[in-house]
Specification:
- The chain is an alpha+beta fold and about 375 residues long.
- Among the domains are: about 20-130, no CATH class; about 170-295, Chitinase A, domain 3 (Roll).
- About 40% of the residues lie in helices and about 10% in strands.
- The chain has 13 helices and 8 strands.
- It has helices at about 40, 65, 80-90, 95, 100-125, 130-150, 160-170, 170-175, 190-205, 210-225, 250-255, 260-265, 300-330; strands at about 70-75, 75-80, 175, 180-190, 235-240, 280, 285-295, 295.
- The protein has a 4-stranded antiparallel sheet with strand order 5-4-7-6, sandwiched between helices. The protein has a two-stranded antiparallel sheet with strand order 1-2.
- The longest helix has 30 residues, at about 300-330.
- The radius of gyration is 32 Å and the shape is elongated.
Amino acid sequence: MLRFKMFFPAACALTLTVAACNTPQRPAAPAAGSSATASAAAAGLPADASPTGAMVAKDSPLTADQRAIVLARVGDHAITLGELEFRLAQEPLPTRSQFASVQKRKEYLARIVQFEVLAAEAKRRGLDRHPEVVEAAKQQMVRRLLIDALGDDDAPIQVSDAELRAYYDANPSLYHKPEQVEISHILLASAAQAEGVANELRTESKGSTARLVALWNERVSALSLDQTSAPYLGNLGLVSREPPMGATPAELERQGRVPPAVIEAAFALEPHVVGPVVASDSGYHVLMVTSRSPAVDRTFEEVKYSIRARVAKREQDLARQKYMEAVRAKTRVEVTDDAVRLLVAPTMDRAPRLKGDGHNHEEEGEDAPPAAPAGPAKPTTTAK
């Protein structure tokens, strides 16, 4: 039995035995604004449609009468010269070049005929009402609706330099960052115990970062007196010697709760090396840096084009949200979602673990990691 694929390379030879792998699909509509005729624009139709609804190739040299010439009929469907031109125009340029001769264009037309024959047979069998087909058509219909209403996502959005500068000035934390390190600690009650744990970690890890991380995860969960950070494997978050520009009050408060001696000692460490024990009013800290981020200081000119992309994306999102609100306002929507609890949720049978390779927060605009614990707590128990 032949098994037909949905997508077909256009350059395959035309034979019945391989017809299913070389029949072109009925093409999707091109991006809004990519092609148009004066008559379509005057009629208020999409730029890629003629008054009869047929697709029109970009910069078509044919007249409307020439595009209407019927080349073949399959049932009630007429395949016109304009449709052939449009379908060829959707092919990649290397493929299109293979159809320069009249004979090759006729072969391409034969594949279109074959595709329409199969489409007609599928419709006779009622497959146009198959749930998967209906869903696919619905998705294409929604895509077309959004393109017609909002334009293609690839269409350029004009953003003035003043808007770009305003974004740059309003988001200093994206473009100006001091050197930062991410710290994890194990808080203990005595210097002797802290030194013992630090030595055990150094000795038992045997220079292996992966082994060190595994040992650290065990020790922090079992021994650390900082009950705020212990569930996060001792993570205190990113800290710096001076406050980052644009830091929120919550971020400043979090870093302010990390003892200055701990911060200073952390900057002397390389990632995934157990540092010397540091004393503070909270107790004794066994330290490990999990990542370092160098200082960032980018000028407006350096980030101007990336800001343009950010602002354009924001404008697209706002336009889409506004459109969705308008459409929803005139559509009756009822949601009764209690039954979603009947779905079986996937489970993960492992606790979070520190990454053995560290990570870098230098990348511009990278989302900050999940909020780290506020800082070490005063020891409430005495370790044995």
